[in-house]
Write a structure and sequence with these properties.
alpha+beta; four-stranded mixed sheet; three-stranded antiparallel sheet; 8 helices
């Protein structure tokens, strides 16, 4: 037998070792590629302390001992007294109502009438006994009783909002310009060809008697060619106002911008929780950011308002501005948010197309409501969704990341080959669970041995699964429930 050359023997040994190692690695890769089944309930909540966004402020509950943000394993939302600042009934709401734990989508309606010392049973008894004044009749769904001075809710009540991030200032002309250039977006004021401008700002006041005005606000004139780039109409420009809030934008324009930057418009309860800046309890709930002082000297450092002059022709500019002012020109509130009072109204989520909500007041408003709205922390108004004026802008908010929730849905009924899978919000399957976790196969309804006249088949047997339990199901992401006022 011919001897094998030592070099060839060494080469064969090397090839054998390489093949063995490769086989071992492939086996390991296959084992690692098989994802172990994960119970969705075991997935942890994201830590809100690890989430930050430039130019945004976190609004939510913080831990008292170290100042960190409370996690989602506990109630980390904000509870406060929501509504007008001119109704004194908020002083009757006790502190325990602010700390009373509620659950469910209608939790704010579960608060007993502690302000008047009544339990639910007592209120129900009085209603059945006819002691309550029901002469005005029931209110329609979504009814909102407004205070005549600031338009806030009457009477105030305790509400709760989930934590969120909010822009520290309104969106500026410069920021909105980037959106328009990137998307070639055309605002609704450009499509309509006109927008509302305050009468005292018109370049040609002599023709004011011929101008068309807003029937509900005669000091606002429809000016052809006015939009965000030409705030007072042709011949005017935003170039020296790039850091001013963008105006002449509709509700849709604002929502489109927020979507483009990966955010959304705030709900009005979110907005008020942020505007109050910690002034949320009966004892520390104030009319304004700076307190309850209604003098212009106290307000001029915090808000861009009309001042002591006669509206709409005499603005003395005590705060330094007659119209919009650059964002962050005034002191922020305790959360670090700017222009939450005055400067421009801000679009909100919610409301109806004919009555979209704006909050915050603007440079044309007063402190006491003697003209226009009283610019309190509860100030509120409604506009048609397509309205564009020189005193309405917006800012955006963003919800923090949350743990994904799952629920069962039926899929591939009768095929007998469905598997339990996890799906993300876009319907993409993330993993397949083990075979032993699959649901039982469907019942064969075409079994020829069954007797259609067999009465015993209709008798319920608790030891056997119900028909709906034998259908194939998949695990899909559960859509989050949004309250009606935050739609």
């Amino acid at each position: 037998m011919k001897a094998i050359h030592p070099i060839r023997r060494l080469l064969w040994a090397t090839l054998l070792i390489i093949s063995i190692v490769s086989a071992a690695n492939s086996t390991t890769d296959e084992a690692e590629s098989k994802e172990a089944p994960i119970n969705p309930d075991d997935q942890p909540h994201p830590d809100p302390n690890e989430e930050n966004y430039p130019g945004m402020i976190y609004i939510g509950r913080h831990n008292h001992h170290d100042g960190t943000r409370a996690g989602f394993h506990t109630d980390n939302g904000v509870k406060f007294i929501y509504g007008t600042g001119f109704d004194e009934t908020h002083k009757e709401i006790e502190e325990k109502d602010l700390h009373h734990e509620h659950y469910g989508p209608d939790s704010e309606h579960d608060i007993a009438d502690r302000a008047h010392g009544k339990t639910r049973e007592q209120v129900l008894h009085e209603k059945r006994a006819g002691k309550l004044d029901l002469s005005k009749g029931p209110k329609p769904y979504g009814w909102f009783e407004e205070h005549p001075l600031d338009g806030g809710m009457v009477p105030p009540k305790v509400v709760r909002v989930d934590p969120f991030f909010m822009d520290e200032a309104p969106v500026t002309n410069k920021e909105f310009g980037k959106f328009v250039r990137a998307t070639y977006y055309e605002t609704e004021a450009e499509k309509f060809g006109w927008s509302f401008v305050l009468s005292s700002f018109l370049p040609d006041v002599e023709n004011l008697h011929e101008a068309e005005v807003d029937p509900e606000a005669e000091d606002w004139v429809a000016v052809d060619g006015a939009y965000w780039r030409n705030p007072e109409g042709p011949g005017t420009s935003y170039k020296y106002r790039e850091n001013h809030p963008v105006v002449h934008v509709s509700h849709r324009d604002a929502a489109e911008y927020c979507t483009w930057v990966g955010k959304r418009l705030p709900g009005e309860r979110e907005w008020e929780a942020a505007a109050r800046g910690g002034n949320i309890g009966p004892s520390n709930r104030t009319l304004y950011v700076w307190g309850d002082d209604q003098t212009t000297d106290a307000a001029k450092d915090y808000a861009n308002l009309w001042g002591d002059g006669d509206f709409p022709w005499d603005n003395k500019a005590e705060d330094g501005w007659r119209a919009t002012s650059p964002v962050k020109s005034f002191k922020p509130n305790l959360f670090g948010l700017y222009d939450m009072t005055g400067n421009v109204w801000e679009w909100q989520r919610g409301g109806k197309h004919k009555k979209r909500i704006v909050r915050g007041g603007s440079y044309v408003d007063s402190l006491d409501g003697s003209f226009n709205h009283a610019a309190t922390l509860g100030v509120r108004a409604t506009l048609h969704a397509t309205t564009t004026t020189g005193n309405v802008g917006f800012r955006c908010v963003k919800s923090p990341k949350r743990k994904e929730e799952y629920h069962w849905v039926y899929e591939n009924e009768g095929e007998g080959n469905a598997e339990l899978v996890l799906e993300d919000g876009e319907g993409n399957r993330k993993q397949r669970q083990a075979q032993q976790n699959q649901q039982p196969q469907p019942i064969d309804i075409f079994n020829e041995d069954d007797d259609e006249f067999d009465v015993e088949e209709d008798i319920y047997d608790p030891t056997k699964p119900r028909p709906d339990e034998t259908r194939n199901r998949v695990l899909a992401v559960k859509p989050r429930t949004v309250r009606s006022d935050e739609l």
